[in-house]
Amino acid sequence: MKKFFKILLWCVIVCILLGTVIFLVKNSQDKEVTYQTVSPEMGSVERTTVLTGKIEPRDEIEIKPQISGIISEILVEPGDHVNNGDIIARIKVIPDEGQLSQARSRVEVARINLEQARAAYNRTRALYDKKYESREKLETDKAAFDNAVAELDQANDQLTIVRDGVSAANAQGSNTLVRATVTGVVLEVPVKVGSSVIQANTMNDGTTIARIADMNDLIFKGKIDETEVALLREGQPVSISVGAVAGSDYSAVIEKIAPVATDDNGTNTFEVKAALRGADTAGLRAGYSANATVVLERAERSLVIPESVVEYSGDSAFVYVLKSENPRQEFVRTAVTTSVSDGINVAVSAPELTTKSRLRGAEVSDGQSTTSQE
Q1: Other residues' Cβ atoms within 10 Å of the Cβ of residue 138
Q2: Nearest C-alpha neighbor of 89 from the set 198, 176, 196, 171
Q3: DSSP-assigned beta bridge partners for residue 242
Q4: What pLDDT digit, counting tens, does each position of 169-226 carry?
Q5: Largest CA distance in the chain
Q6: pTM above 0.85?
Q7: Closest by alpha carbon to 295, among 347, 337, 348, 239?
Q8: Is it true that 34-43+300-370 and 97-164 share their CATH fold?
Q9: Which of 27, 35, 32 is nearest to 368 (CA)?
Q10: Which CATH class is domain 49-57+215-298?
Q11: At what angle do helices 135-164 and 97-129 cross, to 10 degrees?
């Protein structure tokens, strides 16, 4: 009995050893790897970039007063359409005491001169009627009297302008009436009734009464990185997407590319302006955030393959072309020339490649595929 168990024990040990050897031998052998294959297709590939920016009117005008004072009336609101010459506000003048005093003094002087000139003229005319004075003297005194009348009128008009801001000779063109200088839409009225305003001069930009723009002439203003600006050109078409307008796709054309870069948080960028085209821009508002998609490069009627099947080595690119499937897959490493890539697909060219070629793709392992790049 003991001999039987001893023999059985040895048999079990031998079986375990044989199984271990067989397992190790099988694992030491190369596994057969299977790859998915893809075929090139004829098509086109575009490389695009997206510019972030906003929608702006091409021309935006700031209306400023021609006289300092206080706003007494505002006749427009943001969103109103105005024509060139329309009155948008009225200003009440607060006269300067020094200027007012000078204007009053000028009126008094002019009135005194007029009385003297009138008396001299009346005296000369009476003597002339009696043949005691010459005609030349009469004409001289008459001219002096007319000048004195004109001087008093001018002094009174100047007093009215200083005191009221209104010229008696041109009440309709008074500086107290703030008028639109262009035809367009009122974007903003930053002042209120009772606000003090200052006229523009060499020392001050003046107070803005309103901002007006033509909303039928809009542009997109955005920025592009210096690495891509060389691929843009004036006249290039652009597709504009406005975040506030769902599904928007407005067409535009690049008009200007800034010649000088600006520092944008350590990155050199160039400003790009594109003019929006078409009548469908009527609903757009100034200041909308927008993205502009620009096609930088395009390859048409080219062999297109997934970029994941391309192996890059330095400045060279290779693909693996299937040569045989039986008894196992065999691939040949083939050099290709790549051109435009959109990050997913790439256009390639090589004498050995056709639409019937089959290229090595992802590795198939246990029914699943994994990307393989040697």
Answers
A1: 16
A2: 176
A3: 290
A4: 554 445 678 999 999 999 999 999 988 898 887 788 889 999 999 888 899 999 999 9
A5: 183
A6: no
A7: 239
A8: no
A9: 35
A10: mainly beta
A11: 160
Query: Partners of 333 in the beta sheet?
Result: 320
Structural fold of domain 97-164: Helix Hairpins (1.10.287)
pLDDT confidence band for 306 (50 / 70 / 90): very high
Look up tokens 């469908």; give the residue.
280
Q: What is the pLDDT of residues 51-86, one digit of tens each?
A: 999 999 988 999 998 888 889 999 999 989 999 999
Cα four-point dihedral sign 17, 19, 23, 26: positive
Distance between CA atoms of residues 49 and 261, nearest Å: 18
Bridge partners of residue 179, in order along the sequence: 87
- One-letter amino acid of 265: N
Report d(CA 217, CA 152) in Å as an integer: 51
Mean pLDDT, range 328-350, rounded to an integer: 90
- Per-residue pLDDT reduced to its tens digit, 101-151: 787 788 888 888 888 888 888 888 888 888 878 888 888 888 988 898 888
Q: How many CA atoms lie within 13 A of 142 on its CB side?
A: 9
What is the separation, in whole angstroms, between the first and last Cα of the chain? 62
- pLDDT at site 173: 46
CA angle 166, 167, 169 (to 5 degrees): 145
Return the CATH class of domain 34-43+300-370.
mainly beta
- Residue 348's SS3 state is strand
Whether 158 and 103 have beta carbons less than 8 Å apart is answered as: yes
Task: Please confirm whether the linkage preceding 190 is cis (ω < 30° from 0).
Answer: no
Model confidence band, residue 372 (pLDDT cutoffs 50, 70, 90): very low
Instruction: Please identify, in words, the CATH class of the domain defined by 63-91+176-213.
Output: mainly beta
Question: How many angstroms separate the CA atoms of 191 and 44, rounded?
Answer: 56
pLDDT at 22: 66
Would you kindly state where each structural domain of the chain is located, as residue ranges? 34-43+300-370, 49-57+215-298, 63-91+176-213, 97-164
